[in-house]
Request: fold
Amino acid sequence: MRLLHTSDWHLGRSFHGVSLLDEQAAAIARIVALASEHQVEAVLIAGDLYDRAIPPAEAVALFNDALARLSAGGTAVVAIAGNHDSHVRVSVYDPLLCAFKVTVRGDVRRAQEPVLVHPKGGGAPVAIYPLPYLEPSVDGPALSGAPGRLRHEEVTRLALARLRADLSARPGHRAVLVAHTFVAGGASCESERELTVGNVDRVSVEAFAGFDYVALGHLHRSQQLDGPRVAYSGTPLPYSFSEQDHIKSVRIVELAASPGAPEPAAVQVIPLQVGRPLCTLRGPIEALCSDPAHAAAEPARVRAILTDDALPLQAMARLRARFPYIAELRHEPPQRAHASGDERRRQVRQASSPLALTTDFFNDQQGRPPSTAEAELLEAALAQALRGGER
Reply:
């Protein structure tokens, strides 16, 4: 049986205030096309369907359209709620959608109810277990029957024990797990929401023993943790500059013919190649604005790190004239280049008054100095903020 593994669509997300919905629609169109091209029998979406618990209407419409297009192509869909999703909202129509071979599971109490997908070529069905993101403070007591907060590892093992109990009653079935969690050994990046403080959110790879394939979501980089058997597909688009070097992709998974076969699942990682690329440029503003070597960055979303001794006037406006999709501007002059974070912040505070810093920020964002009325409003707002901090 052939599966397509994707995750972390984060529909409705913006990038430095710019909507990504059109690029997300292009990524979904590419995924739908790949599902048809590779004749996959199920698409697995491993959580974080939306970027927030109450997504915008446009994001909901895009997700509904994706489900309809996949279902119309004869492909089963198994999706789960991630830590960004409202478990209740995303799965409210799950009992109805199952008639169309679509499962959107948010209720952990139903995780041991697999989606049975029958191979088109015949043979035993594949049991796909949708395990939504587990919140230890809520799901721990529900699974253990006792009060008290459990670690992610503990609550995950409790849930998996229920899944394995169901699987033991299904001899001859291959088993696939769809889960949203942080597995120890995975590489994270800045755009992921922390699940806990420290490393207590980590779940060991050993916890997922016994499944023919584990389709993971949460980490934004495509990576595998136990050969091809336990893997993250990563996001379809980059969602922060920490992801600018990621190759965004999906995984086409070919399961072995029988459960527990010695050969692992065969996996093909297919780049999506959609969306605007990201690029970080560093140097003085004159070089960034004129050097032909930076021409390739002009259509990209740019993070510019200026190394001029002083922050140039109207720096953002000047950079935007060449890089129309510039998203972020930083100033790291040479005298601060090697300073620690705390030291750098101290130098910035000493360099200018709060009003001057606020005015400089306005210049950078608007590409012009504030008018008299705007300057008065900035000064009044800053004075009120400073008075509030003295209480």
Summary: The chain is about 30% helix and 20% strand. Residues 96 and 102 are 9 Å apart (CA to CA). The chain has a mean pLDDT of 89. The longest strand covers residues 174-180.
